[in-house]
Amino acid sequence: MRARSLPITREDLRRYAEASGDHNPIHLSDEAAQTLGLPGVVAHGMLTSALAIGVVAEWAGGADRVVATSIRFAGPVVVPADTPALLEVAGTVKKVADDGSTAEVALAVTCGGAKVFGKAIVTVSLLRDRNVAASG
């Protein structure tokens, strides 16, 4: 899987907060984030994981190919006010099912050289037509 760099801006965080209803101030205010011991505004965990999973989905042929995810966070994605944070996403196929139906992709996700995810596995379908496989 080809590694990708994904920018995350404060505007992305504002739009995600509106869409998701997650208006936790640590995602929107440096002061609120710093009060809790964070270095500044941090990206929403669900946004971060969705972006990383999206890289795998694109590689696998579409979002409908993602059949399971397991992600443990290791650290926050700090988003500066004046420049995007760069989420670095790389993945390696670690296991293919004996019948060739699925593959487990281990993600390595960092931002500014720091690990964002601890253990992160995305399972994708390798079948061309999942509906045929499910009915057969």
TrEMBL record:
GO terms for biological process: fatty acid biosynthetic process. GO terms for molecular function: fatty acid synthase activity. Residues 4-96 form the MaoC-like domain. InterPro entries: Fatty_acid_synthase, HotDog_dom_sf, MaoC-like_dom. It comes from the Bacteria. GO terms for cellular component: fatty acid synthase complex. Pfam families: MaoC_dehydratas. PANTHER family: (3R)-HYDROXYACYL-ACP DEHYDRATASE SUBUNIT HADB, 3-HYDROXYACYL-THIOESTER DEHYDRATASE HTDX-RELATED. Belongs to the enoyl-CoA hydratase/isomerase family. This is Acyl dehydratase.
